[in-house]
User: Fold this.
Amino acid sequence: MTKDVAEQGSFLVKDYHDPPSVAFIDAKELTKWSFYRALIAEFIATFLFLYITILTVIDYKSQMDKDSDPCGGVGVLGIAWAFGGMIFILVYCTAGLSGGHINPAVTFALFLARKVSLPRAIMFMVAQCLGAICGVGLVRALHKTYYNSHGGGANELADGYNIGTGLSAEIIGTFVLVYTVFSAIDPKRNARDSHVPVLAPLPIGFAVFMVHLATIPITGTGINPARSFGAAVIYNKDKAWDDQWTFWVGPFTGAAIAAFYHQFILRASAVKALGSFRSTTGHV
Assistant:
């Protein structure tokens, strides 16, 4: 197994056993080029993700205005494909460099599972948010008229839905995504099915696609705090900021639940840890 493949949080881990938990704070990684290369990969990936997806949303809304045709443009189905397809492409491209997180909620979940260190988790989130801001900023710079008149692709709770419904949609949607991520990178699954590391980006992209189909009418679909934050910063309207907390609390809560479910229920990490503790104390 090469050093690059063994990067923290990588989707390409080929070890048949659970990799050891990383250090909570690993000062040594701050001196390695691979750490900063991973940050650059996360920044560029999130930049491209927001540019393509927000541009798809803006162009669809502008096309609707021109044609007054509910079926004009790519439609909600096309928007969902844009988000899911970009995640598939970008995870595939960056998995061996940074793990292909492209989402602070995914990074947070992997941190809780002790697959990335605290400094890496924090720096990844910063890089993702900055990439999102720059990606949306480029959309606004190139398509300013349509951008301002069509909501800037910002996530907002739709009329007719209450906060509880919106928060639940974000929690459950992020749970689906993060649960898929953990399943795709599960070392035991990799041991059984050698093709899974190659296909890992595919189910992750499909998870994003399916969640968007379900939740676009409710919240516009966040499930990615960087996506929601970047759009809110550039659009900078009251409604987008008033609902912003939903797109952080919801995804982080859903990510934490998914991490706990996979690591401590499905993989029984807590039981293994307790067994190891009893075995150790039994020999004292």
